[in-house]
Amino acid sequence: MTAQEFNLWLNERARRPLVMGVLNITPDSFSDGGDHLKPEVAAKASREMESAGADLIDIGGESTRPGSQPVSVEQQIERILPVVRAIRQVSPITLSIDTTRARVAQAALDAGANLINDISAGRDDDQMFPLIAKREVPIILMHVQGTPATMQDHPTYTHVAIEVELFLRERMKVAIESGIKRRNILVDPGIGFGKNLDHNLTLLRELKGLKRLGRPVVIGTSRKGFIGKITGESDPKRRQFGTAATIAWSIANGAAILRVHDVEPMVQVTKMMRAMMSVGERSQKPEARSQ
User: Fold this and answer.
1) Which residues contact 181 (CB under 8 A, 6 or more apart)?
2) Residue 38 catalytic?
3) First-to-last CA distance in the chain?
4) Residue 155 has pLDDT above 80, yes or no
5) Separation of CA 209 from chain center
6) Of 65, 101, 223, 224, which residue is the catalytic one?
7) Please, which residues have CB within 8 angstroms of residue 1's CB and are 6 or more apart in sequence?
8) 230-289 pLDDT, tens per residue?
9) Alpha helices (H) along 64-159
10) What's the CA gap between 260 and 220, in Å, rounded?
11) Cβ contact 250:258 at 8 Å
12) For 217, which DSSP code?
């Protein structure tokens, strides 16, 4: 999917679910750290994900796993830019940049990236929203309690689904007041970011509530620790089946973008869910019932 196609998709009323492939350019991400440090290796992985059906690629130069420490702006730029340029030489696919820093976002956009995935929802850098407004590009606003270094230190909520929705609504309001067009905003409840097992399951169970925000919902459950706790699988790369269950559920409950590591099998899940859901829609038409 090109950037132009993605922008058209953002304005559609009935959006098909998209698959976003994860490409971490980090030595310490929780499940694929160190796999894509060389630009040529990262570009090859991106092409493979695109061939497997990924609609977007999300590139990150800073690990946000629980307990991770911040990475400097300079280090992020050094990691990300060669990869963005290498991918741009071979593909027009929509590129997302996973960063909370405006300077990183600006450098990546200048190199050919198309949208920004900000896990802090614009709170870490007060220049992020003005940059996004000026460049008129989409941004994903995510909920997180605490920071990656502290977020799993006894996260506490009274009503997690309500609190996450209210947070995202407030950040949307700030973004719009900063000049960002509503159509360029996506939201992410931040599964695994400052949430325990019950919080994650509650957010998934009540996912339909985020439809009230009126913007596409991004879900990132892929390989995460809560899946390992439930399935007993300690190796993140062996959590495909657990991930697939969460992907299917998320699509059925309104998720618009699924952020995943294992693109090919999750594309299959997405296609099956879309087919089953569209058959249900067709069966409601008068002509379908009369046949």
Assistant:
1) 136
2) no
3) 36
4) yes
5) 18
6) 224
7) 9, 18, 55, 56, 93, 94
8) 999 999 999 999 999 999 999 999 999 999 999 999 999 999 999 999 875 655 555 444
9) 73-88, 102-111, 128-135
10) 7
11) yes
12) B
CA torsion, ordered 20, 25, 26, 27, to nearest 10 deg? 120
Annotated catalytic residue 224: yes
Cβ atoms of residues 261 and 238 within 8 Å: no
Distance CA 8, CA 16 (A): 12
d(CA 122, CA 190): 14
Q: What angle do CA 84, 85, 91 make, to 5 degrees?
A: 80
Mean per-residue pLDDT of the chain:
91
The tokens for 76 are: 């992020």
Write out the CATH class of domain 3-290: alpha beta
Q: What is the pLDDT of residues 58-105, one digit of tens each?
A: 999 887 766 667 789 999 999 999 999 999 999 999 999 999 999 999
Q: What are the pLDDT digits (tens) for 171-230?
A: 999 999 999 999 999 999 999 999 999 999 999 999 999 999 999 999 999 999 999 999
Instruction: Identify the active-site residue in 229, 259, 274, 285.
Output: 259
Handedness of CA 158, 161, 164, 169 (dihedral sign): negative
Handedness of CA 123, 59, 219, 130 (dihedral sign): positive
Q: Where are the domains of the chain?
A: 3-290
4: helix, strand or coil: helix
Tens digit of each residue's pLDDT (9 = 90 or more) over 113-124: 999 999 999 999
CA 233 to chain centre: 23
Provide the token pair at 30: 């929780």
Return the pLDDT at 288: 44
Query: Residue 159 pLDDT more than 80?
Result: yes
Reported residue count of the chain is 291
